[in-house]
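Worked problem 6 (solution included).
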Amino acid sequence: MKVKDLADDKFQVVAVIDNGYCATEHFLTEGDVSTESARGGLERMIEKVAELGLEDVPSAWFHLANKPEKIYEFIKGPLRLFFFKGEGRQIAVCTTGVRKSGLKADKAAVARSVEMRAEYFAAVENKTLQVVSDETE
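Solution. The predicted structure is:
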């Protein structure tokens, strides 16, 4: 499994690359004008999380989207960026993002995050996890 380095400081925030495609990177860089500010806010949040850790950023920035599966979501305006806690310095492994449309977490995004979490920890265990700075690596 490959993950892309999104922010690296005291901690590391990475995003899953699935079949050569980084859904998180696409989510953060593409979208309509109405979400541009929220996407920029998510990028700044990721940088702060890498610098300070999840425990030292405001609790309003993220919460558990699915407690049994240990899937979290960063929150910025109408946008949600799903992640799980990784190993070692990788404190947030981002999977995908959505524009919130209802009261509950997006079930399809959570399900995909659960699959990616299982793949990630299998790769950690098998020592096959690769961190890249560009998804073409």
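Discussion: The longest helix spans residues 107-126.
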